[in-house]
Amino acid sequence: MWDWPDLGDGIQSVLAPAGPHAGWVAHLSWLIFIGGGLILLLVVIMTTLAIFAPDRWRKGIGQRRTVIIGGIAFPLVTLTAMLVYGLGGSAALVSSPAAALRIEVVGEQWWWRVHYLDETGAIRLVTANEIRIPAGLPIQFDLKSADVIHSFWVPSLAGKLDMIPGRVNSYRFAADEAGVYRGQCAEYCGAQHALMAFYVVAMEQDEFEQWYADQVQPAAEPDLPQFEAGRELFLTNGCGACHTVRGTPADGVIGPDLTHVGSRVSLAAGTLPNNVGTLAGWIASAQHLKPDNKMPSFDNLEGTELRAIAGYLENLK
Amino acid sequence: MTACWHGAIIARGVLLAAMVLAVAACQQEGVPAEHRIVDGDPERGRAAIVAIGCGACHHVPGVRGAHGVVGPSLDAFGHRKLIGGVMPNEPTILVQWVQDAPSLIPETGMPDLPLSQAQARDIAAYLYTLR
Question: Is residue A280 within 8 angstroms of chain B, CB to CB?
Answer without folding.
Answer: yes
